[in-house]
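Record 1 of the preview.
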Amino acid sequence: MKKTLKGENSIQIKLRAYGFAENLSGNQFPKFCDSHILEADKIPEHGTNYMAVDPAWNRNWFCLWIRVDDRGRKFVYREWPNRHDYGEWAVPGEKMDGSPGPAQSVGAGRGLPEVKEIIGELENGEDIEARYIDPALELRKPLGARAAQASLIC
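->
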């Protein structure tokens, strides 16, 4: 490890050798600003669609649909649960990342068949090139055991 980190700054050494991160607040997307937020009608109608999901046992699954246009730009064109229907995913709280918002709990505890039905209704037959799911799914019990026996493909 010492050899690998030779020449690195103290922040990288702390992070990579000891798993200690500092100054994280506001650093996740330092260049994110209003110019990255588009009205729905500005998102290209055509492109390659992808879907990513973070499953959960005691809160709603979080699903995100991304369209990549012919120039390689990526657009989030759908998320579930969405703010309009379910409220915020997180709200200000004492922890740095806030507290769970209503979108995490409204209707939480759905089984895999119901989640598949929701996804199918939202997609309404559109082509999805690939789906990505949190690889830690297998480690989550009892969800992992049940989800391993069923297909998320809608």
